[in-house]
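In line with agreed milestones, the collection of sequences with tokenised folds has grown. A representative record is reproduced below.
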Amino acid sequence: MAPNDPTPTADNDRPTTKPKPKQARFAEIRAWWTEAWDEGGTLHEMWEDVRRAPDAGWHGMANWIKALAAIAAFSFVVLLFNGATEVLLDTAHRILTAVPHAQVGNNTSTGVWATIDNPVRSYIAAHSVGLPISASTVYTLWQFTGLFSLIAGFVTRSNGVRLTWSCWGFAGIAMVWTTTPDASRTVATAIAVLAWTIASAFAMRGLNLRPRVFANVTTGAPQITVQPQIHIPAQPDGGTPDNIRQLNR
């Protein structure tokens, strides 16, 4: 069946879409590249900044070079710290694994030290079930922390180390109080407190709890500084002064 419109459709009336040729895009990119490398262009100025950087030094080089250098240095430090942390943790794990296993649950200490050490062993053995490390490793860490904070507090006088020593002592006294039977709990805790106090004389060497008072005495009278000086007026160079008059003339 023929269409109702007898007028044939011309070829020019049909819509045509012509895609943008790739040559035009490449020409634009090439023009931008050439303009950027011309004198005063973006890439040309960046290259000049890089070329002048060795002679200009850190303070004279461009800010974007400083930013890149800082980011690179920071990334390197982070990677180095990450690797060092893994190495240290692996070394510490090997050292703690190589330590002979202490009989934590058994009362192997003797003498006065057994009054403090045996309750700590029993407490750690009872409360280390389910941990990824053994009770012997926890006890070794406990001993190492106390010994380190004692020596480091005596040598460095650091407040952070002294705080660690204080927390270690309070935790040990609490373990002695919790684990010791009721009949001898008071005496055992008193011995633990006495031993920790004696050791604190070394760990907290130089600690002074008295507040420091700085007295600054000022008087209301102003301070006057006297500096005697002699000012000689400048004399004219040669000629007769204007204030000299001849008499009888």
Remarks:
- The CA atoms of residues 57 and 151 lie 45 Å apart.
- The helical segments are 22-37, 42-60, 63-98, 112-127, 135-156, 159-179, 185-203.
- Residues 63-98 form the longest helix (36 residues).
- The radius of gyration is 44 Å.
